[in-house]
Amino acid sequence: MLKSKKLFIIAGEQSGDTHAANFIKELSGFYDIKSYGTGGARLRSLGQEQYYDINDLSVIGFDGVIKKLPFFFKVRDVLLEKIKEIKPDAVVLVDYPGFNLRFAEKLEKSGIPVIYLIAPQVWAWNYKRVKVIKRCVDLLLCILPFEEDIFRKEGINAHFIGNPVVDHLKYSYESREKFFRAAGLDPDKKTIGILPGSRRREVETLLPLMLTAADSLKDKYQFIVSKAESVSEELLAGVLRKRDYKIATLTADIMKHTDLVWVCSGTASLETAVSGTPMVILYKVGRFTAFLGRMLIKTKFIGLPNLIAGRAIVPEAVQDDATPGKIIDYTEKIFSSYAKVKADVENVGLLFSGLNPSRRGAEIAAEFLAGKE
Known about the structure:
About 50% of the residues lie in helices and about 15% in strands. The protein is α/β, with parallel strands linked by helices.
């Protein structure tokens, strides 16, 4: 019979609910888990006793944070009281650093072990947060390979477990030939995948630039546009304006089986690297947001493949560089040295190969919890 463990889990976003649920499923192979805290449908389906739903906790932008501050103070106080009542074996904080790091500080003198799943990105901005992590977090689980070294140098018990993108990458077609046949593409023509993002703003900002570049290159290459599930048919049709490019919801297959991808910066760029496909990374926001970003973010690169490699292995078309002309130039440069770029991208992908982050995280957490018995 498995030993019982009470875990208090704080997930404040949809992604956190997913990551936490996957983690708890794996940890349930080591312990009989009873969980409490905040989360969404996935954690609830595993029997979590929830005091707040992720929909209550979601917030967008600085204005949203300020407006909801009184509510968040109430949430903090309620959760701290529940922890006193329940006396969990550990508190698991999942991403959501704006709330969770402050919450960790409140737990500092409680004697309750704190596990942090998905390390805050201190390397991008506000590095001084490492002081809070060192003081208040007992086990830190990282999803980017260079993070472990950063935190360990600060004396933090950090472990790289792999990245959740691996869990989400499900290819519907095992081969390029089958995918091309299903998508109605010419197998003898170089193919570029267009991935404008999953948010309305991203699609409205980036897709017109991508399509203008594609219009100039369509005699040389063929294109297929990825439609994220969260993007409406109406939005996509409005931007396409009757252009006859192929469209598919098979985003992972587009990443895997095309020769090159034009991709919105973010998780999708890492998924593309794990799929082994060269890419041009695009990023464009409003001028005020860009100004704040330059003030706060300290990284040389914006694309995860470049950050992980520590150098520019793929081009980034950012802000004023995000133009059809630059997209075309970068595309031709990649094809002129295709083997090298592909090898560099594949090397980044290999860092995540064979790693199941939820299982690895659970193994490390189980060993940690056993040491606290």
